[in-house]
Design a protein that fits this description.
The protein is mainly beta. It has a single domain, classed as Immunoglobulin-like. The protein has one helix at 2-23; strands spanning 42-47, 69-81, 86-96, 103-109, 115-116, 120-121, 126-130, 140-146, 149-150, 159-167, 182-192. The strands form two sheets. Strands 1, 2, 4, 5, 7, 9 and 10 form a seven-stranded antiparallel sheet that branches.
Length: 194
Amino acid sequence: MKQFLSLLAISALMALATSVFATEPDIDATATSHFNTNVTEMAVLNITAGAVDLVLVAPATGGAAIAAVSDHSTYAQYTSVIGVGTTRTLDARISTGTLPTGTTLTLLPAATAGNGTKGTSVSSAITLGTVGTLSGTTAASIVTGIGSCNTGVGATDGVKLTYELSVQAIGSLKTTATNDITITYTLTDSGTEG
């Protein structure tokens, strides 16, 4: 009987403890943290290749025209964050140097992969210089409608740039030492979003 009473007392205490814990109110604690966010305007540009060599060589057969030479190892890579209602262009111009007399240098950009609004490349080659003149004082837009985006940073990410040096006026062509030419690329705010 003592065992029964002891068992009964323990059961009563457990029932009482359960009812006490079951009726205890929930206690919650809440705290907050305040912080500010800001997205700044960004225009970061990288041109992947170093010096590009375009060398006109003799044709295999006498009397044949001199073939144009091209290079497509260069990529323009960019990150852009724009303000509301604006877009950018990627512009190119010859900033220093003179082309060999009788030649033309063209640039053809190709479409790019990446993320966001990367813009649209022009569909035909842009002439950057002609007949030995420094016609690069006015920039040519090669990609338009750039918004907030990034093109990637891999070896073949970005806008593929194909340069071509061709003979425009064979009668004016003369041998030359190396003609150093610098093409300057600029991400430029261009106006309102369409």
